[in-house]
UniProtKB/TrEMBL annotation:
It is found in: Cell membrane; Endomembrane system. This is S-type anion channel SLAH2-like. GO terms for cellular component: endomembrane system; plasma membrane. The keyword Cell membrane applies. It is a multi-pass membrane protein. Its main location: membrane.
Length: 619
């Protein structure tokens, strides 16, 4: 009948039984394929594709298949009453339109007709038209496998945006710059709604306050996330290396560069001249220190460039901020341990290295004095000694270079704040938390400040007088009081905190060498040699352990959780329950008590549900 013939003409079949013709119908670009019959007249229309066939350019075709399914209908299917059509839009915006052909008769039951046609460009939008008569039109692309793979990769690939909040040049900034240049956005790069919500929760212009650090982290070093907190970054996978590289890594530079100072002192001091130390030892250690300093500085500069938000969070961390003194102290050690006379170095070098320390002093000491959430009584920690040692090292180097007034200024500033810090750390307020075992090495920082202060005062006065001896004896007593407590340092797992052993031990050894030159006896010489040997063995052992954990076990830099806290507390209920169970709380009775008292309007004077769960009171 006319209906089946019209359909065959439209889709390119050779008979009404649904067998595909050997030659598929070719659809030229910018053409519309349409089949229509004037209602009731039985007049067939010629497809529009035939009129534009000669305008097709050869070699610009991509095949796709068209499947048209017409179900059986016992009462007859009137295609003339269907206004259905399907369209495929190519890259150029042209539409290939396929319309059903009206008819006066129904097709055979369960007839499925297939055809293949070609278009100029691959379709980007595929639509399946469904009508009241359940006429189905399906269009499938016949792209080559490589081209299809590229299309899928473009549409399915999504960029990991979880770390964008810490990146200097995040995806959001790139999209904003693209919009300003008028570059259209790729649909695959459009941010989903949930990622925007997560960024609103964690990515603010302001870093967390000091109170937020204390609320989200625990321990005196504020390095451990509380059990009820949820970090802004995933916990179950390894973060990018730059995000895991902390500012405390400069402690390695302090330990190695101080060894260059020690062996230079053993070579030049009269008390240790009998050792006949070769200058090559100082040269080798100095170059190793320079290489290590260059490596660590380069890595951290990359972190500043690519993850500036993480660096900013470290700077505002109440404890981590003290480690920003470490790079400049290490540079002062390198200048002091240079294998040439220090007084031959230009004074500009000293001023350049002391300028950042002076700026940090203004910030840190101002916060200690002004009170608030960053007052010293709240943040007192052995790492605060780094904020004091820099002034003494600067005074020591300046005095050796021939400067006078500026080194005395820094010595006075450091001495005043060291006395305040020493008293605050010794009294250990009830609000202070006991140091965990794996952070006990930082107690050796107590030895560093008085040791360097004694050397600085000796160089400022020109002799190892009573003031220098008082400071030296204080450091020697603190050193011995820590050494005799061997059990205090047993069972400590390795971490970067172990480098806190190296720099104070080396400083005490150098101070002992200067004291032995002023008071030359067998005991002082033996003490100088013994402390120098202990310091060198300690630095060597810690350096080997660091390389083993960095390159063999690869666990030296775990995820840096302190920088990943959220602006506002977000706790998972499961973590809260786990924390309650670990604290011995009966969770079932707690929930029962909450449900029992949650709907009461009057205030109850009975104990809290937490006290009920612990059996502290009776109902």
């Amino acid at each position: 009948m006319a209906t089946s013939e019209g359909i065959q003409m439209a889709v390119g079949l050779d008979d009404a039984r649904g067998r595909p013709s050997p030659e598929p119908l070719r659809l030229p670009p910018r053409a519309v394929l349409a089949g229509s019959v004037d209602g009731g007249a039985g007049k067939e229309a010629v497809p529009a594709a035939a009129r534009g066939d000669r305008a097709r350019a050869p070699g610009t075709e991509t095949a796709y298949s068209v499947s048209l399914s017409v179900p059986a209908s016992p009462s007859g299917l009137h295609l003339a009453q269907l206004g259905a059509c399907a369209s495929v839009r190519s890259d150029g915006g042209d539409a290939v339109r396929v319309a059903p052909v009206p008819a006066e008769a129904t097709p055979e039951p369960d007839a499925r007709q297939h055809a293949e046609a070609t278009a100029e460009a691959p379709p980007q939008l595929l639509k399946q038209a469904r009508f009241n008569s359940q006429l189905t039109l399906t269009i499938r692309t016949e792209e080559p496998p490589l081209q299809r793979m590229r299309t899928v990769s473009r549409s399915d690939s999504t960029r990991d945006r979880r770390f964008d909040q810490f990146k200097t040049f995040s995806g959001r900034l790139e999209r904003q710059l693209s919009n300003l240049r008028g570059v259209p956005q790729d649909p695959a790069e459009v941010e989903p709604a949930d990622s925007k919500i997560s960024e609103e929760e964690t990515d603010d212009d302001e870093v967390p306050t000091a109170d937020r650090y204390f609320a989200a982290l625990e321990g005196p070093e504020l390095e451990t996330l509380r059990p009820t907190e949820v970090p802004a970054l995933p916990e179950d996978e390894t973060w990018p290396f730059l995000l895991r590289f902390p500012i405390s890594a400069f402690g390695m530079c302090l330990g190695v560069s101080s060894q260059a100072m020690l062996w230079k002192a053993l070579q030049s001091e009269p008390a240790t001249a009998f050792l006949r130390v070769s200058p090559d030892v100082n040269h080798a250690l100095w170059w190793v220190s320079v290489a290590l300093m260059a490596l660590v500085s380069s890595i951290y500069l990359l972190k500043v460039v690519f993850y500036f938000e993480a660096v900013r969070r470290e700077f505002y961390h109440p404890i981590r901020v003290n480690f920003f003194f470490a790079p400049w102290i290490a540079c002062l050690f390198l200048v002091k341990g240079l294998p040439r006379p220090v007084w031959m170095i230009h004074h500009v070098v000293w001023y350049v290295l002391m300028a950042p320390i002076f700026c940090l002093d203004l910030k840190i000491y101002g916060q200690w004095m002004s009170g608030g959430d960053r007052r010293l009584s709240k943040m007192a920690n052995p790492t605060n000694h780094l904020a004091v040692v820099g002034n003494f090292v600067g005074a020591l180097l300046g005095a050796r270079m021939g400067l006078r007034e500026a080194p005395i200024f820094f010595f006075a500033v450091g001495l005043a704040h060291y006395v305040v810090l020493f008293v605050t750390l010794y009294q250990r307020l009830p609000t202070n938390v006991q140091l965990p075992k794996d952070l006990h090495p930082v107690f050796f920082l107590f030895v560093a400040a008085p040791s360097v202060a004694s050397m600085a005062w000796a160089r400022l006065c020109g002799e190892f007088n009573y003031g220098a001896k008082i400071a030296y004896f204080i450091s020697l007593f603190l050193y011995m009081s820590l050494v005799v407590r061997i059990n205090f340092f047993r069972g400590v797992r390795f971490s970067l905190a172990w480098w806190a052993y190296t720099f104070p031990m080396t400083s005490a050894a150098i101070a002992t060498t200067l004291y032995a030159s002023a008071v030359t006896t067998v005991l002082t010489r033996a003490l100088a040699v013994g402390l120098s040997g202990i310091a060198s063995v300690t630095v060597t052992g810690v350096l080997v352990a660091t390389m083993y954990h960095a390159f063999v076990r690869r666990d030296l830099f775990p995820n840096d959780v302190p920088i990943a806290i959220t602006q506002r507390p977000r706790a998972k209920f499961s973590k809260i329950l786990a924390h309650l169970r670990s604290s011995g709380t009966d969770v079932k009775e707690l929930v029962f008590s909450v449900s029992r008292h949650g709907g009461s309007d009057t205030s109850s004077e009975s104990p809290s549900p937490m006290a009920r769960g612990r059996g502290g009171a009776e109902p």
